[in-house]
Write a structure and sequence with these properties.
Length: 174
């Protein structure tokens, strides 16, 4: 192999590596990222220490929907919670029953045991451009009921899509 061919081959490899790094940075910063679940507030849907992939792009073109598991960015910590209330809705919890705009809402994503730990709350109206979130483990979750308050749309940085670690737990997070 001639020196010129060797030099061209090295340049091609460097270009390929540089392109791969740029694509990885774009994907990481604008499309998908990972987060580690810290605590049991989303148990049994998500467990402490699991690593999830979240979709950052989905909320650039759309808005959070009820039931989405979202990543909320706060200055010192990110939170993983489920969207329950949408902008402008009225939320009330009475005798372990969730009401949205006065209508009972069946929470099919959590156990009856978790529902029984949901204390009375509200009624309260969600401001425009804000969301009401709750953890699936109602007994211990810090959420819109007791510390996080309403979540501004700009603080929701993505929707959880997939559990990737531990490997034995690979699954969609819906």
């Amino acid at each position: 192999m001639t020196k010129q061919k060797q030099k061209n081959e090295w340049l091609e490899w460097l270009k390929a590596i540089l392109i791969a790094i740029i694509i990885a940075l774009i994907v990481r910063n604008f499309i998908f990222a990972t987060s580690i679940v810290d605590g049991d507030s989303m148990f049994p849907t998500l467990k402490d220490g699991e690593r999830v992939v979240f979709n950052k792009f989905v909320y650039m073109i759309g808005e959070p929907k009820r039931g989405d598991i979202v990543i909320i960015q706060r200055p010192h910590k990110n939170y993983v919670k489920r969207v329950i209330g949408l902008p402008g809705e009225t939320i009330e919890i009475q005798d372990h029953v969730l009401y949205i705009n006065g209508d009972e809402y069946k929470q099919t994503f959590i156990s009856n045991e978790a529902i029984n730990y949901t204390g009375n709350f509200g009624p309260i109206q969600i401001p425009t451009d804000s969301y009401f979130v709750i953890g699936d483990n109602r007994a211990i979750s810090k959420d819109s009921r007791n510390g996080l308050g309403f979540i501004d749309e700009e603080d929701i940085i993505g929707r959880s899509e997939l559990i990737i670690y531990p490997f034995s737990e690979w699954s969609l997070t819906r």
